[in-house]
Automatic annotation (TrEMBL):
Phylogenetic classification of the source organism: Bacteria, Pseudomonadati, Bacteroidota, Cytophagia, Cytophagales
Keywords: 2Fe-2S, Heme, Iron, Iron-sulfur, Metal-binding, Nitrate assimilation, Oxidoreductase
InterPro entries assigned to the protein according to its UniProt record, in alphabetical order: NasD-like, Rieske-like_NirD, Rieske_2Fe-2S, Rieske_2Fe-2S_sf
Name the record gives this protein: Nitrite reductase small subunit NirD
PROSITE patterns xref list: NIRD (PS51300), RIESKE (PS51296)
Organism annotation: Imperialibacter roseus
Gene: nirD
Ranges where the Rieske domain occurs: 17-119
Residues in coiled coil: none
Length: 122
C-alpha cells in the first residue's frame, strides 16, 4: 500500500501522508532535510535503534535551519538531537527541550513503506 494521501480513522486525528524521499537518501544514524508542504522538516534515520523521526528543521534557540545536521543519540531511553550550533538538545519523540531553556520543537509522524519515507502532516 502506498499511503501518499492516507487519512486516519478519526476526525480529531487526521493525518495526511506526504512522500519525503527514498530510504537511501538518508544517512544511517543521521539526518537530512526535506521540504514538504512549505515546511523544512528534519528526517532522521536512527538506524542504531531501528527507528525514524521527523521534526522541524529550525532550531528555536537562534532560529537556524539546522537541526537535520544535528547529532542524534539517546539520553536514557529518550532519542534526541543536538543542534550543531550551541548543542541545545531536543527529544525526537516528544519535541521537548531537554535543556529546559529553549522552546520545544514540532515533531511529525513518520512511516517507511517499501523503501519510501512518508511524513504525516495534519
Ligand atoms: S541555534 Fe541551535 S542551539 Fe543555538
Amino acid at each position: 500500500m502506498t499511503p501518499k494521501e492516507h487519512t486516519s480513522q478519526t476526525l480529531t486525528d487526521t493525518v495526511n501522508w506526504h512522500l519525503a524521499a527514498r530510504v537511501e537518501d538518508f544517512p544511517e544514524n543521521g539526518g537530512a532535510c526535506v521540504y514538504v508542504e512549505g515546511k523544512q522538516i528534519a528526517v532522521f534515520n536512527f538506524s542504531a535503534r531501528n527507528e525514524w523521526y521527523a521534526c522541524q528543521n529550525m532550531c528555536p534557540h537562534k532560529q537556524q535551519m539546522i537541526l537535520s545536521r544535528g547529532m542524534i543519540g539517546s539520553q536514557a531511553e529518550e532519542p534526541k538531537v543536538a543542534c550543531p550550533f550551541h548543542k541545545k538538545t531536543f527529544s525526537l519523540s516528544t519535541g521537548k527541550s531537554l535543556n529546559g531553556d529553549t522552546c520545544d520543537i514540532d515533531t511529525y509522524p513518520i512511516r517507511v513503506e517499501e523503501g519510501v519515507v512518508y511524513i504525516g502532516l495534519s
